[in-house]
Sequence to fold (306 residues):
Amino acid sequence: MKDVAIVGLGCAAYTAAVYTARYKLDTVLIGEVEGGMGMSAAEVGNWPGNIDISGPDLMENYKNHALSFENVEHKVGRVEKVEKTDEGFLLTMQNSDTLEARTVIFATGSNKRHLGIPGEEEFSGKGVTYCATCDAFFYRGKDVAVLGGGDSAVEGAAIAAQVANKVYLVHRKDTFRAEPYWVDKVNEKDNVEFVLNTNAIEVIGDQKVTGLKLDTPWNGSDTLNVDGVFIEIGSIPAVSLPKNIGCTLDDRGHILVDDAMKTSIQGVFAAGDVSSGSNHFAQFATAAGEGSVAANSVFNYLQAGE
Ligand code: NDP
Fold:
């Protein structure tokens, strides 16, 4: 029986593990994707103490820190089910392994939102991808479109512009919600064209993507001729496990937490992008903060013998 099972392998999870380890709690970290969404950040310029570090390097640092403690076990695999027991919680993995823990922290993060337009699924992996910063490298010298107006899209367009011939940044509004830092970065690139107040309505192609149809003609054509379409329109919190165990969600579909990162289920806590905390501001800094608070709450909960 572990003191705490932390489900997830992203920033919130690793931070929580550093804290639970130092509270001398027997900890298991379990998740499917090492590094989580943080792996897709090409450049993290807002992690205090590091002026510039890549997402994968930062995640490697988190992981090494968490695993430097003897009382932290690291398991890579998919958790299929979490159930309440008399003593705590039973977690069942995809390979049917089980483990028990007195408390659970869900730090399951989020999954990229799909647009749901014709051709999107058909050409997924054949020119349509959901991580511009990860995949831009494969489009050296080609023309690509990045969809969205948040940090992921605008950062993605700036990174893609370093290798692609031309980048169309297609956004449904005429203003970006991305940090002005990233907007300035794309403005500096002379191979990025802004296609604003425009929605993508179909991905077209043959074996691979050849174009993107728009609802509003741009430069006299309703089709952008591109080899790649990077869809960066936000994420959906990964709540299936917490939902199954009865955790209340907020109106945006995140696990509802209080200031102590407690969920509606006793002994269950949440942190990071999956939680309703930090005003839904999904950042490395907020995920780390929430992970530390969740760990402190687990410690208090176990101390109180609730
Ligand atoms: P966001 O939710 O911030 O932005 C999503 C964007 O996609 C918005 O511009 C939105 O448009 C648009 N959009 C949503 N749905 C649709 C749709 N159906 N059709 C067309 N457009 C759509 O998601 P991000 O992934 O950009 O960012 C998520 C979080 O991660 C944020 O907190 C962000 O700050 C953080 N992040 C931080 C980074 C960093 O610091 N290096 C890098 C990447 C992300 P509209 O604006 O009209 O709503």
